[in-house]
Amino acid sequence: MKVKKGIELQNVCNEYLLIPAGIENVDFSKIISLNPTAAYLWENVSNMESFDTDTLVELLLKEYEVEEPIAREDSQLIIERWLETGIIEE
Question: Which of 49, 37, 41, 44 lies closest to 5, judged by CA?
């Protein structure tokens, strides 16, 4: 997986938002809100050439007190959601 170009994470009043960058891309129906954990993952993978479920699992285990099976399930779910919204690609 990789993050699509032109999507920026912004912290607006303690809300983490993914916003299309560039004036030609402004479409406020496409703003996506992330919880702090998802924002942490996004910040880390947005600079990677590619990532997968294992990458997210490692990040979660490194930062949070969570068991590996739960981290894996959550990682798979977030990848599915990010793919559905079109902010990452395979």
Answer: 49
- Short-list 16, 37, 40, 20, CA closest to 28: 20
CA distance linking residue 55 with residue 35, whole number of Å: 19
**Per-residue confidence (pLDDT) for residue 22, from 0 to 100:** 65
Where do the H-state alpha helices sit in 1-88? 36-45, 53-63, 68-85
Single pTM value for the model:
0.86
Residue 24 and residue 30 in contact, taking contact as beta carbons nearer than 8 Å: no
Q: Is 27 exposed, middle or buried (0-12, 13-18, 19+ CB in 10 A)?
A: exposed
The whole-number pLDDT of residue 60 equals 98
- At residue 86, the pLDDT reads 86
Report residue 28: phi and psi, to 5°.
Answer: -70, -10
Give the length of the chain.
90
